[in-house]
Structure formats: C-alpha cells, structure tokens
Specification:
This protein is mainly α. It contains two helices and no strands.
Length: 58
C-alpha cells in the first residue's frame, strides 16, 4: 500500500473510533429508552466497522 492509502485507512479507523466513543458518551446521558437504544446500536455498528477494517489489515 502506498503511504497515501495508509493515511486514508488511519483516518477511517480514527473516525470509526471517534463515532463509537461519541455514541457511547451520548447513550449514557440520553433519557429516552428508544433513543438511547438507537444511539447505542449506531455505536456498536461503528465498533464493528472498526474491527472489520482492522481485520482486513492483519
């Protein structure tokens, strides 16, 4: 892979990690159960995306 491609992957992993963390933090303070569940689910999807991208690299 070229250095530019590696930087793109690094950015993608960083974005997935940040979105997951933001969703987790938001889910902790949200009071509405259905909205809390939705935000948690979105965070889990991004955690799975992070893991999938990371697995492809290994």
């Amino acid at each position: 892979m070229s250095p530019k491609e590696l930087l793109y992957i690094e950015d993608a992993l960083g974005h997935e990690k940040q979105i997951k963390a933001t969703c987790q933090q938001s889910a902790e303070i949200i009071q509405d159960p259905s909205l809390k569940n939705l935000v948690s689910e979105i965070g889990n999807r991004h955690a799975n995306s992070f893991a999938d991208i990371y697995k492809l690299l290994g």
